[in-house]
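I'd like us to work through together how a protein chain folds, taking it slowly. To get us started, please write out a protein record for me. Label the sequence line and the structure token line clearly, so we can match residues to local backbone shapes. Once you have written the record down, we can walk along the chain together.
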Amino acid sequence: MGTNGSTMLKPLRQGLPPLDPAAVSSAASCALPARYEAVREARQFTRRTLDQWDVGDRFDDICLVVSELVTNALRHALPGDGGCCGADQTPQVRLHLMRWTERLVCAVRDPSHDTPVAGSSDDFSAESGRGLFLVDSFSDSWGWHPLAGTLNGKVVWALFRLQPGE
């Protein structure tokens, strides 16, 4: 049981696994407002997109992981008491879904530079801190990387293996 914590932290600093961008068969993304209703909007967007993509038995896993990733991003993107942004400069949280023949990646971009940290999974009554354990449990792999160039923030991603179509 003690090994789970250390293996859990291994993928944290990984960039996206080598997937050929030219081989993407489908991609969709949506910008999300920096308010908690955005989690529902992200779920609806994901359900509509996955309905068209035929992802088989991974549908529920993907929707759950998207909810967790977006919730985490909003937790860091929502302005605090002083607010990080003016009214015209809303923090940018963006959800990307990309599908290859046998892979699907969901990636969420947020303006925070903080390293994603998994909370303790021992306290099952805790209201928060379990999101990354759920992501780790329901996806095949996950990780994060800082945004390059002039973009602020980071991307946290999760990868799902799909069964090839019949």
